[in-house]
Input
Amino acid sequence: MGCIFGIDIGGTEIKIGKFKGRELVLKTSIKTDTSAGGRYVLPDLFRKIDELSKGEKIAGIGVGIPGPVFKGIVNGAQNLGWGRVEAEALIRERYPEARVRVLNDANAAAIGEMAAGSASKFKNFVFVTLGTGIGGGVVIDGEVLEGENGAGGEIGHMQIANDGKRLCNCGRHDCFERYASATGLVITAKELSEGRKTRLHQTGFSAKSIFDLAKEGDEVALEAVDKMVEALAVTLANIGAVLNPEAFIIGGGVSKVGTFLLDKLSKKFREVCFFALKETEFALASLGNDAGIYGAAHVAGK
Ligand SMILES: [Zn+2]
Output
């Protein structure tokens, strides 16, 4: 039957999972060498795959990439130094016997949660990763939506304000992730704390300190969290009005806050959403950093 590799290429490390059937039998990682326009990324990966598969048949290789991907072609991945790279074709050339799939990393994580995590009972859902930015994966009838140029599900770049105050890494202003990611939360808390009494002046402004103090009832921290939750709830309600998913699955570093965030979010969502969306479920992602390797292996093993 052969083994399947599920791979998650990030800007600092490449996570590699080796699967037998659906079972993860080995997990490791190598550093991402982003020098020289990222030209060593794939050769380094190939060397590691060869080392891990010695003599074994490779049935599938799935790879998640931090950038838009359409039909296996990477449409720019700044964290890797990549422009347009025909990644799937390059990997298939090296491993012609294997079933090769290349997809966006958030999409891979969404598929991973469906294959082995907390989205296992859903076929229609939106996966939302809350970290320094916001990523998204839209799954419809069990298939991820890539869109025409691989930008499908890039919910972090929905524009949710119109005052030009918060510049986004994408070059535009007022994107969703400038308000509802860890970065957005910190910006909001700094704005709110000016001239006001809050323990944030002592602890410093990080997403963790803001959530910790909000739980303890610090007024400014709580207000910042509520503003973040409102931005999340309204934007997910808008997404809901287009897709009417069964559920929103919340992952990424910020989701470690857990039920404190999830309860606030689902409550606010029900207040602001179109009435027919009130039954939409909310769940925390369960695979953490491994979601991407599970998802990549799943699409390569189908
Ligand atoms: Zn943006």
Notes: Residues 157, 168, 170, 172, 175 surround zinc ion (CB under 6 Å).
